[in-house]
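Reading group handout, session on sequence-to-structure problems. Before we discuss, look at one worked example. The prompt was deliberately terse, the way you'd type it at a terminal:

> structure Riboflavin biosynthesis protein

The input record follows.
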Amino acid sequence: MKVVHLRYPHELNLANETTAYSLAVGFFDGVHKGHQAVIRKAKEMAEQLNIESAVMTFDPHPSIVLGGRKEKVFYITPLPQKLEVLEEYGVENVFVVHFTSDFAKLSPEDFIQYFIRDLNVKHVTAGFDYSFGQFGKGNMETMKELSNGDYGVTVIDKQSDEEEKISSTRIRRYLQDGDMESAGQLLGRAFEVPGIVIHGDKRGRTIGFPTANIQSMEGSFIPATGVYAVRILVQNKWYDGVCNVGYKPTFKNPDEKQLSIEVHIFDFNKNIYGEEVKVGWYKRIRSEQKFNGIEALKAQIEKDKNESIEFFARLRNS
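And the output record:
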């Protein structure tokens, strides 16, 4: 997959672009099922027109540049992770447009000139609510009206489940609540956090449950504290496990707020310090709690482990 970073107005040197594209355009945080419908259609049009598929996304999130949101926005998929997911979905090209205040001032007409026509885009696909140009004045009707026959336009209708529209906002809410099953339903896959295995306090091995201590990739969102059924990708192989996210209240002073992510990997005994891994989050088993002593903690971890094993057995048989 080819990745091209674009910045307005200094790096638009693609006016002589000869490759033609079918372009899916949007922010695509999470690359959830709604986004996948847009990308799938762009890929279909690329095949139909015998041109290359492409996705245009933006970085950073527009609300960071423009403000206006009361709540802090976190990324479901920070840019490096988003690019990985897009590659897995078979996208041939990604244009990452650096979202700046200058870019935000572009008129809809200029956006189309610089980022559609100058890139030799022959077909544009986006969601029904996609907007562009200063103050979001441009919408998909504008995209059609200003095409002058230079490119085709496909608008993807609202994608919903039985509750409401599939959206990044809903997924963020589920992640904050630790509802990984609902988040996974909307994503079409488990929520994943990349990271690296670091040295911890090694207390787990002394009680019979050695853990991999994970330092998450900067910018990754960590779900609500608690215990989860997870899978972890180590050296290109997925393993089942159980994960504790929290502050280890049984051992730590509650005033020392140091969040840890610890995964007990089933049937695994390798030394993996320094390895890059991914944690896939499937189900929240319980909240984090403080135990009266080591034996009570060990008994609960055994129960958590068995619940995780049973969960993945059901998942495989479903």
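Points for discussion. First: The two ends are 33 Å apart (CA to CA). Second: The longest strand covers residues 276-286.
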